[in-house]
Amino acid sequence: MATLPPTPILAAAPTTAVGDIAPEALAEALVGLHGKAAAVALLARLAPEPTEIRGEIGAVIARARPEQRMLAAQTIGDCTAMLDTGLTALGTLSRRGQDASAPALVLWREFHAARAAMVAVLAGEPA
Q: What are 22-25's contacts with CB under 8 Å, separation 24+?
């Protein structure tokens, strides 16, 4: 039986330059993501979190290595797609007069778990 060697998670030569993602751009994308999450929190009847990036998370982004920032940028893109799709579905429920709080809470929890994993990657901690 022939086997192939395992492929690495990160390609040796990524299609985009790893150093292209500036900490400021990552923080700006994270602010946009938190804006979408705030809309989900309102539908889930939760108090929204602050959307500005300051304090410890800003320092974590600044200290992160380029490959960590690349993974974080991919996570932000994935979460943005998840929240956009979820907000569309939740809007449909609301327009039908149905209570969207339970599915919004599930979406919020998924976002919260993904964000915690992304911060762990940025900080260099095991997720």
A: 23/61, 23/62, 23/64, 23/69
- Res. 33: pLDDT tops 80: yes
pTM for the predicted model, two decimal places: 0.76
In 3D space, the residue among 43, 36, 34, 33 whose CA is nearest the CA of residue 102 turns out to be 43
Mutual orientation of helices 23-43 and 101-123 as an angle, nearest 10°?
160
What amino acid occupies position 88?
T
Please tell me the distance from the alpha carbon of residue 42 to that of residue 29, in angstroms, as a whole number.
20
For the record, the structure tokens of 79 come out as 């979460």
Q: Do residues 76 and 118 lie in contact, with contact meaning Cβ atoms separated by under 8 Å? A: yes
Token pair, residue 82, equals 């998840």
Alpha helix locations (H) across 7-65? 23-43, 55-63
Q: Are 108 and 94 in contact (CB under 8 A)?
A: no
